[in-house]
Amino acid sequence: MASVFGSTLKRREDPRLITGNGQYSEDIQLPGMLYASVLRSPHAHARIVNINTDAAKALEGVVAVYTGKDLEGKIGTVPTAWLPPDSNIQTPPHEVLAVNKVRYVGDGVALVVAENRYVARDAVDLIQVTYAPLPAVAEQEQAIADGAPILHDGVENNVAFHWQAGNATDDVFENAEVIVKQRFRQQRLIPNPMEPRAATAQYNPATGEMTLWATSQNPHIHRFLLSGILGIPENKLRIVSVDVGGGFGAKIACYPDEAMVAYAARDLKRPVKWVEDRRENFLVTSHGRDMVLDVEFAGTKDGDFTAIRVKNIANMGAYLSTAGPGVPTILFGLIVPGAYKIPYAAVDVYGVFTNTTPTDAYRGAGRPEATYLLERMVDLFAAEIGKDPVEVRRRNLIQSHEFPYNTAMGLEYDSGNYEVALDKALAMVGYEELRQKQQELRSQGRHLGIGVTTYVEICGLGPSQVAGAVGFQGGLWESATVRVHPTGKVTVFTGASPHGQGEETTFAQIVSQRLGVPFEDIEVVHGDTNRIAMGWGTYGSRTTPVGGNAIAVAVDKVLEKAKKIAAHMLEVSEEDVRFEDGKYSVEGAPTRSVTIQEVTLQAYLAWNLPQGVEPALEGTAFYDPVNFVYPFGTHICVVEVDEETGDIDLVKYVAVDDCGRVINPMVAEGQVHGGIVQGIGQALWEGAVYDEQAQLLTGTFMDYAMPKARFFKEFETAFTETPAPQNPLGVKGIGETGTIASTPTVVNAVMDALRPFGVKDINMPLTPERVWNAIEKGRQEA
Amino acid sequence: MKITFQHTYNAPREQVWTLLQDEDTLVRTLPGCKRLHLVRDGLYETELGLDVGPIKGLFEGHVEMCEQEEPTRYRLKLSGRGKPGELTADSWVFLEDKDGKTVVTCDADAQVSGLLASVGQRVTGSVARMLLGRFFKNVEAELRRSAS
């Protein structure tokens, strides 16, 4: 049988998704269903003086109107689920509807439930709220300054937490031959999944069971948290998320809206649906990034890196989102040394409350920010000592024979072959010729730039023991059940909750290869807490390295039992049976064999099973990885900058990634493409902007620049395969590598192009205006 | 958001001043003014029906004229609330005599919130300028009317 694992099969989820047959939360239609709409604060910071809902309640078709006061004591607050240790973290209550005070534009003030969505929306406009506006602050450095408006009583200087890690003392820097310092601004990004959030709740008063169809990357975590907010025990609460139109981190968090919808469904004993509109999505679904980073980087004149030290002031928004505090701390800080041998590294992180939308994970979550500053510093350092940035990188990369490698941040990198990926990317792009061409073009007044990133990322979250140690309020193992039915068809139940990544295809490939049954006979079930025992969801590029390996272990349990039955059927001892391509045969007598399907049927009939073997055939695994996985690679970008207009032309983009063994090259490449697009989006176009009163100015697609397909040329991608040594499948994650590597790659390329003008850094996004101004400034200073 | 607007009237300063301070003139000249009700000296309750780009619908709020230094300058405050959000403006209006003509300059600092900010901010400045323009042109029409 040809190998299924590693082959390019078309995504089996696509036909339904591209023919309008997907089942999204919005598609749920229930008899007697009501519709909800939320009144949101137009003020970034204000006291609620009075709310008058009379006119809204009087509107025909309105069934109920709830305010924060109406819900007080009847529903819990929205918790934070990541509490970094030793950080003095402050978790002021996040009410589902503001009671006395609103803290950002979009903060929920009232919920209307009506017979249809139009009436619900109209009724929202009839609610009269008297606000007493308070001074507001949107920017984190302003928020920690003395005299800044305080968001939460008792939280001094708006500091939500202060977390430190690593060790890089002053004397290391004082004694360094070369020091480079730079400030970077990681601008705030708005994730913008194609599908906004949605929730439909149905309560069964007879049984007390609540079903909530909701847009979730992690239904079991949502069950866990919503159970507490709503006071409904887990065994009576079902969360379903079958098709989800992208999340990028924004559907990890537990939001007030889903909780309120469920509350109303129970209160009114009728199903209630709420669908976020695009404007609400911009305003209230979690944002990403938003960090101010001060970096000190030390090394020798010869080009050895010796130390890196980072101060990170992170904007957490008005409340601490579910995983928010983990992003600028653990996920950011631990990977700061990157792919290099840096003896000393330290991070100092402040999480700050501001009158803005809460921030949480956004594709890469902490790792793009860390990789950005490191890869930018490496280029600045190389320029400082007058060496080629590739040469400097090569000199400091961890060598393949040095794995497992212990970093200054206390991580143990599992494996790597960094130079192989680097050399492959250099060959693909034709690096030496490009440098010559750059010289030639410069003499003609044209500005070509070449940017390189040699990254490593930490993903496959992760060993549960480590999760606990770093303050994540959950486990990070994954569950899988592989059920072989009497006819040999297979259902795979996974606790990972894919939402567009293609695991219905790749997980079936894992099972097909390992169990020897046809790909077409395998069904993958996900996203339903009543069908799947437990799961921790999809984020942190964990679905394949953790969820996929859980499936592999579950298949092995099936095979172990099937082998006993096969040996019994073949009347030989287990040691004499070998398994290959779905067939058990007698060692030395290959014609004497039984197929896995024949064994399965006997397992179910149970007429003649070996002693001590139970009927039926299924395996369940709860797989907890022993380590994270560390994908790596090299991305190279070539740009040309027009000095007259500041416009950037993306000439070429090469990505060589190593995610261990590749299950489906097309699916993996798709992940790389999407990641690159999002990463370049940050580098060149995207950015949320608040005004002085903390009003969001970029609240539509007219004002927030989302990358479009026509912005890009073809990407040239390739994989190197260094099998992950610490998991059965040898796989690593691929979902976030593109966003991690591409942002610094493109910015490095633009800065390389601008070297003749003496430009060292420009804040992202690198809009033509900013580039042009930097060129002009450089010219004046020259 | 800072907005500056200037208009020159072919009339003496005192006449322009009187007109700008007159309640009946204000009702006729404030764009979309449906109601103007004196609350106390210089402070009026008002309803403006506006329909310019994103600034659409009925706005309820206040107009206040204070700190008058006849005939050179006065302060004009405006606050309004409507479906698309809230707007406030604090401005100084200067009257300058120039060869018998009067140059009126309005320096305003305006703030918008809610939908007006997230959707309309890019055009709010131009819309505000346009509304101010209408106001000053309406005042000019009043001048001509009183002259005839």
Automatic annotation (TrEMBL), chain A:
The keyword Oxidoreductase applies. Residues 19-135 form the Aldehyde oxidase/xanthine dehydrogenase a/b hammerhead domain. InterPro entries: Ald_Oxase/Xan_DH_a/b, Ald_Oxase/Xan_DH_a/b_sf, Ald_Oxase/xanthine_DH-like, AldOxase/xan_DH_MoCoBD1, AldOxase/xan_DH_MoCoBD2, AldOxase/xan_DH_Mopterin-bd_sf. Transmembrane segments: none annotated. Pfam families: Ald_Xan_dh_C (PF01315), MoCoBD_1 (PF02738), MoCoBD_2 (PF20256). Signal peptide: none annotated. Its cofactor is Mo-molybdopterin cytosine dinucleotide. The keyword Hydrolase does not apply. GO terms for molecular function: iron ion binding; oxidoreductase activity. Keywords: Molybdenum, Oxidoreductase. This is Carbon monoxide dehydrogenase.
UniProtKB/TrEMBL annotation, chain B:
Signal peptide: none annotated. Pfam families: COXG. InterPro entries: CO_DH_gsu, START-like_dom_sf. This is Carbon monoxide dehydrogenase. The lineage of its organism: Bacteria, Bacillati, Bacillota, Bacilli, Bacillales.
